[in-house]
Write a structure and sequence with these properties.
globular; 100 residues; binds iron/sulfur cluster
C-alpha cells in the first residue's frame, strides 16, 4: 500500500508544513459524544479520534478546514491557534484507516 499524506503525518506526528490554518479543538465539557464531527472530518485528514469516553481532534492531523464545526449540534468545536502536540495516549487511538 502506498504511503499517504495522512500516514506520513501519523508516522511523523507532524502537521503538513503547508497548512497555515489553525487546528480545531473539541471542548470536551460540552461535547455530547454524538460522533457527528467524526463523520464530518474528511478521511484524508481523519483528525477526529474516538477515545474511550470522548472524541478529540489530533492537531497534527487537523488541516483546519473547519468542516466539523457546523456539524456539531452543541457548537463545542473551536479553533485552537495555541495548540500543543497531542499526548502520546491519543496516538494509540489513531487508526491508520480513518473510517474504521
Ligand atoms: S477542522 Fe477539518 S480536518 Fe480538522 S477535525 Fe475538523 S473537519 Fe477534520
Ligand atoms: S459533533 Fe460536537 S457534540 Fe458531537 S462528538 Fe463532535 S464535538 Fe462532540
Amino acid at each position: 500500500m502506498p504511503t499517504t499524506g495522512r500516514q506520513h503525518r501519523i508516522t511523523g506526528r507532524a502537521r503538513h508544513p503547508h497548512w497555515h490554518l489553525a487546528p480545531w479543538l473539541v471542548q470536551s465539557s460540552s461535547c455530547i459524544n454524538c460522533d457527528a464531527c467524526l463523520k464530518a472530518c474528511p478521511a484524508e485528514f481523519g483528525a477526529v479520534v474516538q477515545r474511550r469516553f470522548n472524541v478529540v481532534i489530533v492537531p497534527e492531523l487537523c488541516s483546519g478546514c473547519g468542516r466539523c464545526a457546523p456539524a456539531c449540534p452543541v457548537d463545542c468545536i473551536v479553533e485552537d491557534p495555541d495548540w500543543t502536540p497531542a499526548p502520546d495516549a491519543w496516538w494509540d487511538d489513531v487508526k491508520v484507516d480513518a473510517r474504521v
